[in-house]
Design a protein that fits this description.
With about 425 residues, the chain is mainly beta. The chain has no helices and 36 strands. The protein is globular. It binds calcium ion (4 copies).
């Protein structure tokens, strides 16, 4: 117990590991396959009794993608068998896995699933095999991508995180019952609504006042925070019928840009697409005014090969950057940050009607060999919009595993960190 086993799921291969446990012990086996980013691989994990009866099995789970988590409370003292294999026995020598086996907590969701940077707040870890547990958490001072909480208790620490959003929106937590417009949870202004579709058929209503002409982006985070929920979002006039609805605009998650038609009260409803529910069906609806955004990206030189920048000493290197402007327009300027010593960038800037621009990196003949996680930052530079501030950075998704037809299957988004 409480070890990580490294193995390979070969073709027609099944691996077994035996642990000893006492009656009442929690045994969890969480396996990492696709998440190791090595190859396209669908791993399966199960916990069996000594007599080979399957007690818990997991092929895929929203929290861990197509990896698996099996969990039991040992029904008696004795040996328990962990089984790991490729889900259709079709592995190969590249199908490396790591299976974490132990008595650690493995909650499948958190409530709320987000908070403000720097805030201290109680968080409920949900859907562990032993139930739920509340812990007081202090969040990092600054927003960061890929943030999550690692559940801990006196038995250990979860091997992977529960995703947790950092945003400046104040939290509202649902109160049941909230199935009607009359008992809907009331809130005001930009808010994050946090709840759980806690049982099959559950649906949650939130009610707020808005004025004609206001425009909100309303985004349901569910799969994006690795919840089991496939959300459906509906907006109604309070006491009236639906005005707008969305199922899957953001992957399985839902998104609506809501232009308020009249002064009045409105109701936001969240439910599961198939009417399913359970403790792992958490969600977080972020309702905020529209915010302009700029995202820069690099174009591929060679198909399926991610561009990197190598600048010869005393020479230069050109990169094409593309810009996506959201909810604003205008010309952009670019600057480099954290470039290696002796490196400068040269760019004409991007005209208002242009979305691609070259950036030339120069290195002086004296520049030392070095490398950096440098940043290229774009900003709106428009004398006609002096009060509008928009800044954006290059986002380069890292494709770890490609599937059929080279389609990205597993992609990582990392934060750049300053190397010095
Ligand atoms: Ca699987
Ligand atoms: Ca609920
Ligand atoms: Ca409800
Ligand atoms: Ca959906």
């Amino acid at each position: 117990m409480n070890v990580t086993v490294n193995g390979t799921a070969d073709n027609e291969d099944v691996d077994y590991f035996v642990v000893e446990a006492k009656k009442g012990d929690r045994i969890t086996a969480e396996v990492e396959g696709i998440r190791l980013g090595i190859t396209l691989f669908d791993v399966y994990v199960a916990i069996m009794s000594a007599a080979r009866f399957e007690l818990s099995a997991s092929d895929d789970n929203a929290l861990v993608w197509q990896d698996g988590v099996a969990s039991i409370i040992a029904p008696e003292d004795g040996k328990y068998i962990i089984q790991v294999r490729e889900s259709s026995y079709a592995g190969n020598g590249s199908c490396l896995y790591r299976v974490h086996v132990g008595s650690f907590p493995r909650p499948m969701g958190v409530l709320p699933a987000g908070g403000r940077p720097g805030e201290t707040l109680p968080v409920k870890f949900l859907a562990d095999i032993t139930g739920e547990r509340v812990e007081t958490i202090t969040l990092p001072a600054a927003a960061q991508g890929n943030f999550g909480l690692f559940a801990k208790d006196d038995k250990g620490i979860a091997p992977s995180q529960n995703p947790f959003r950092l945003s400046d929106l104040p939290n509202v937590i649902e109160q049941e019952p909230n199935e009607t417009h009359d008992n809907a949870v009331k809130f005001t202004g930009p808010t994050a609504l946090n709840g759980v579709i806690g049982a099959p058929g559950d649906n949650d209503n939130y009610r707020f006042a808005a004025r004609k002409g206001e425009v909100y982006d309303i985004r349901v985070h569910a799969r994006s925070i690795r919840s089991s929920l496939d959300p459906v979002l509906t907006i109604s006039a309070a006491g009236g019928g639906a005005i707008a609805a969305n199922d899957d605009s953001a992957g399985p998650d839902s998104y609506i840009r809501f232009g308020v038609p009249n002064d009045g009260e409105y109701v936001i409803n969240v439910r599961d697409h198939l009417g399913n529910g359970g403790a792992a069906f958490t969600y977080r609806v972020e309702l905020a005014p529209i915010k302009p955004a700029l995202i820069l990206a690099t174009a591929e030189f060679v198909q399926y090969v991610q561009p990197t920048v190598s600048i010869p000493k005393g020479n230069r290197y050109a990169l094409l950057l593309s810009a996506a402007r959201y909810d604003f327009g205008g010309p952009l300027t670019l600057r480099g940050e954290n470039l290696p010593p002796g490196v400068t960038i040269e760019t004409p800037g991007m005209a208002a009607n242009s979305t691609v621009m070259p950036v030339i990196f120069h290195a002086t003949p004296e520049a030392a060999n070095s490398g950096r996680l440098a940043e290229i930052i774009g900003s709106l530079n428009d004398p006609a919009q002096p009060n509008m501030k928009v800044e954006g950075r290059v986002e380069q998704p890292i494709v770890m595993v490609r599937g059929q037809n080279q389609i990205p299957f597993w992609t990582e988004h990392t934060n750049r960190r300053r190397s010095s």
